[in-house]
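Practice problem 4.
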């Protein structure tokens, strides 16, 4: 018992001493910060007497002597620290830094030479010394360490990531590319990492792409039998929008490395589809379809081709009866050839959407989906089918069945974004059907959704309803506006415009007027009438610059100038206006990105 009490007493005493020492150390640091350097030095000297093995104390006191201009004492304490811990690179680099700051160039150069000559073929030592220089932003010295390290361990791919970071600080993009491509020559698995790193470089400075491309061309000539260099080339050309070169490289990979199977070409086509580059997506699909039915990617190629055909159909405002019949035949032929399986899931949804909203064959669409919903699809895929069924039923007036399908998705997909999407869809159905107050309560509840897009949509609808109540506290204007939105969603643009006309004709003024203009601009975009869309958006900016639609109008206008009217200078002015005049806008980050590209 006595022994136990003694141990506890010792532990308590040690803790008290440690706390006291720590408090005094903090006092010494405070004295130094307040300019009482000599007082801090006296305290550090006392600490060193008590614990002459503590390296940090030597560094602290050396720094104090440096601050009062006593370089010799600063150097003396660093050398004492070296004797205590001869392998500590932090001390050595601090000494180097002291020589540099005190203009002792001979000592500085001599120490650097010694550090490099004594460096051993030990990976941890090389990294430790290099990183000490990096911490102090001494890029040239760090570079010398890592290059020396490569020589010592006989590996010209070692320290690629450290050296590329140093080259980036120096703005030496040519050497960054050489580092990466040397790494790719020896370690093909680094392809994704290299693409990620170079993508980060492009985000900061798009002008460096010619430098990267030039170095890749040099390495590609030496590595014609390395498919990873070809894969990188496709990625690089896609980044720089040189799609014809990407396509030719995909063909080369297919013929030379993939035995005409087409894996890379199909991936290229899908990438083009996802980036809305329909021309090259179609080239890819046609190339794949020429391989015939024996190709392992035949169905995927047909899927890509039909998806593109549907996308082109949607983008046409003036659709002829021939267009409708041709697309319906394409869908029928596809499902005569292939079953409704997971591989055909997207085309299955497209066919049902086409029948319900473009061919007035809602019952055919419903029958098609309900007959196939249980054919091996995942829970989330069944959820997507049910949400489409809900839209179809709501479109044709069966609100009860639409809500039932939404409720099933909420229950079946609890842990998926689809659950919140189903709740949002139910709220929108109520909004479209003029149950405005109930819809508002649902939108408010969804503003805390974990899915950002759904939360933003719910917030937008909430604000729209709350900010646009009629003077008599009714929702008559909002009800007309909701009907217009509903008809746009279901592709009845003329009827939508009729409802918008009703708002303008029913009121001398209404807070919805700016929203009406914005919706008219959207309709004009659906019609590919970019000039009219531009005029509506400019009217918002002239008449309602302080309304919530103003930054939306600016962002849409910048997109029109960039992608449709080729007015880059005007787009630049618009993007700058978003950043300067609407700093709290959700578009600020995207505006900065587009501005950098411009």
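Answer key:
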């Amino acid at each position: 018992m006595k022994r136990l009490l003694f141990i506890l007493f010792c532990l308590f005493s040690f803790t008290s001493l440690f706390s006291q020492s720590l408090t005094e150390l903090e006092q010494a640091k405070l004295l130094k910060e307040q300019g009482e350097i000599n007082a801090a030095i006296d305290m550090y000297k006392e600490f060193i007497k008590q614990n002459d093995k503590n390296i940090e104390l030597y560094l602290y006191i050396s720094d104090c002597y440096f601050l009062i201009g006593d370089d010799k004492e600063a150097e003396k304490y660093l050398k004492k620290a070296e004797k205590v811990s001869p392998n500590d690179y932090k001390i050595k680099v601090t000494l180097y830094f002291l020589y540099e700051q005190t203009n002792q160039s001979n000592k500085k150069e001599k120490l650097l030479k010694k550090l490099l000559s004594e460096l051993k073929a030990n990976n941890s030592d090389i990294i430790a010394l290099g990183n000490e220089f990096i911490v102090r932003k001494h890029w040239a010295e760090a570079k010398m360490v890592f290059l020396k390290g490569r020589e010592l361990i006989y590996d010209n791919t070692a320290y690629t990531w450290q050296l590329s970071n140093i080259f980036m600080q120096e703005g030496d993009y040519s050497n960054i590319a050489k580092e990466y491509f040397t790494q790719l020559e020896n370690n093909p698995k680094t392809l994704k990492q290299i693409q990620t790193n170079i993508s980060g470089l492009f985000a900061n400075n798009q002008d460096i792409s010619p430098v990267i491309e030039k170095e890749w061309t040099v390495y590609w000539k030496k590595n014609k039998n390395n498919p990873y260099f070809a894969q990188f080339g496709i990625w690089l050309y896609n980044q720089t929008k040189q799609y014809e070169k990407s396509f030719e490289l995909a063909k080369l990979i297919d013929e030379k490395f993939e035995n005409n199977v087409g894996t890379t070409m199909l991936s290229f086509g899908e990438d083009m589809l996802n980036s809305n580059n329909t021309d090259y997506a179609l080239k890819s699909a046609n190339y794949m379809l020429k391989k015939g039915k024996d190709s392992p990617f035949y169905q995927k190629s047909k899927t890509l081709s039909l998806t593109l055909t549907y996308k082109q159909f949607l983008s046409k405002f003036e659709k002829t009866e021939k267009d409708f019949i041709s697309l319906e035949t394409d869908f029928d032929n596809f499902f005569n050839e292939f079953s409704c399986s997971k591989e055909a899931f997207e085309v299955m949804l497209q066919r049902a959407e086409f029948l319900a909203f473009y061919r007035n064959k809602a019952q055919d669409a419903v029958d098609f989906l309900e007959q196939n919903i249980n054919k091996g699809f995942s829970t989330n895929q069944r959820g997507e089918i049910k949400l489409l069924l809900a839209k179809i039923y709501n479109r044709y007036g069966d609100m009860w069945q639409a809500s039932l399908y939404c409720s099933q998705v909420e229950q079946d997909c609890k842990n998926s974004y689809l659950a919140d999407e189903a709740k949002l869809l139910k709220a929108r159905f109520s909004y479209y059907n003029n149950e405005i107050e109930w819809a508002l309560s649902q939108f408010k509840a969804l503003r805390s959704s974990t899915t950002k897009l759904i939360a933003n949509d719910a917030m937008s609808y909430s604000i729209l309803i709350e900010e646009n109540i009629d003077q008599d506290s009714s929702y008559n204007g909002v009800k007309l506006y909701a009907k217009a939105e509903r008809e746009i969603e279901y592709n009845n643009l003329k009827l939508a415009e009729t409802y918008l006309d009703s708002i303008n004709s029913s009121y001398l003024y209404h807070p919805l007027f700016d929203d009406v203009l914005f919706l008219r601009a959207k309709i004009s975009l659906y019609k590919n009438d970019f000039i009219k869309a531009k005029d509506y958006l400019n009217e918002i900016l002239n008449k309602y610059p302080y309304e919530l639609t103003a930054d939306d109008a600016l962002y849409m206008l910048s997109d029109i100038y960039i992608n449709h009217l080729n007015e880059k200078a005007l787009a630049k002015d618009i993007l700058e206006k978003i950043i300067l005049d609407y700093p709290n806008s959700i578009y600020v980050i995207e505006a900065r990105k587009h501005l950098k590209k411009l």
